[in-house]
Description:
The protein is an alpha/beta fold. It is about 30% helix and about 25% strand. Helix 9 (about 275-285) links the parallel strand 14 (about 270-275) and strand 15.
Amino acid sequence: MECLAMPPGVPSTFTEALERAAAGRTGDAVWDGDRWHTWRDCLAQSERTAGVLHRAGLRAGDVLATQLPNCWELLVLHAATARLGVLLLPLHTAYRSHEVQSLVTQAGAVALVARGSHRGRSRVGELDGVRAACPSLRHVWVFAEAPEALPTEALCGSAELMPLEDPGVELPAPPRDPQAPLLLLASSGTTSRRPKLCVHRHAGLLGNAEAVAVDGDLDSTDTIVSASPLSHAFGLLSVHLAMVTGGAVGLFEGWNAQDFLTLLRGASATAAFAVPAQLRDLVSVLDRMPTAGTVLPALREVRTGGAPVSRELVDGIRRTLGTRVIVQWGMTEVGAGTYTRPDDPAELTATVGRPTSGAEVRIVDANGALAGAGTTGELQYRSPFMFSGYYRAAETTRDALTADGWLRTGDLAVLYPDGSVGYRGRADELINRGGLKFSALEVEELLNDLPQLAQHAVVAEPDPRLGQRSCLVVALRDGTGLTLDDVTGHLAGKGLATYKLPERLVVVDELPTTVTGKIARARLRAVSLSEAIR
Length: 534
């Protein structure tokens, strides 16, 4: 394996890691849809952008929120805010004004950078409303197709953020403490209605990437392309991996399976990051291509996580792409938490692998005692790379951690003798039918090979006698039909206990998902209660 750009075990700030990458790799490093940039380009542009932000009054400890897709400008802002000690708060592009206003207010952000449109719809009016509703905002910069259309006294055009010339501003010394905060990420891994803002340190995020690189045999020869947004920990990992190894990264905006294939091919990608829903789309496209196995000759790894990964999907990826598959579990709080390794036997992809080097996992029962091997309980996690706490929420942070520093993840899992972790879903995905509890995830996995299903999820519905019953909500593939008897017969044929069989079937056009592609279970429960059986 090639030497890492960041010496293993040596904590680093973002600016130091970028400087090493720029010194070690002079050629193409960042693909932005239609052109390559170098790490030197990123370093130089981020210095100029930092000058603009500093001139506008942003100082260390301030929060700058961004609502940008995966793009060169977002990477530059990541580097520029790190250079100043300003905390970056990346927001999902799918958020509307309600979510943006709520998170900007929660963080006390002093600046917001966003695109003036999303999927052909103007957002200028929404952004102006956010500016007016958030007293902490001193600056709102908008990337707009027609800057002259902006209400100039309220919103500023973004061209000034990416100057081609040095703005002539004397910058303060860059942060040198690797334990200093780097950015905020809004957690989606909780059941709370208000997302928690996770504070991540330079050494935490970059150290996590370094450990993943070593464990995953990734080096400066790799080009990583992620379909996951950089507003999500999984997407950010792809950029941080490329930077700490001195490799390259491809930035992909939005989601379209054919376009993703085109980018993978054009960038000569060696590693692709995508969530299971995206990979199913990819496999579907590749299955229609007679020469699928030769489409991406450079690709040797597909890394996936964020939702359950079925054996059927793993087999489909291997069949169509001929690559190894890395299955990962993580949370906003921990980044890459556990994952399979390149030399693991194929059957281990049925697990979420072993902890990141330097991290620990344990399984505890309802009383907080260690669960026995093979026993399902709550997954708890401890790592030098995980978040340092929730922003401005000391009590919430204390509640999330044990006295000895273990994160209570709220996920159910089992620990096997070889140290690998079997994921069993969220604790709130348990269905309690008359005192008999089972995981919705277990039933969903057994339905993965039912050919009529495009999307499916099992949810609990209230029952006056039993407490809860299970309901299956599905979206069907074109031209297919499905009955409840089809479902229960399929599951019974696999030996599933009768009490775990779905007792109601709801067919919808499309299941609601989160911005990261996970099934939005809270919204799904509302659908199951309001829809009639078809």
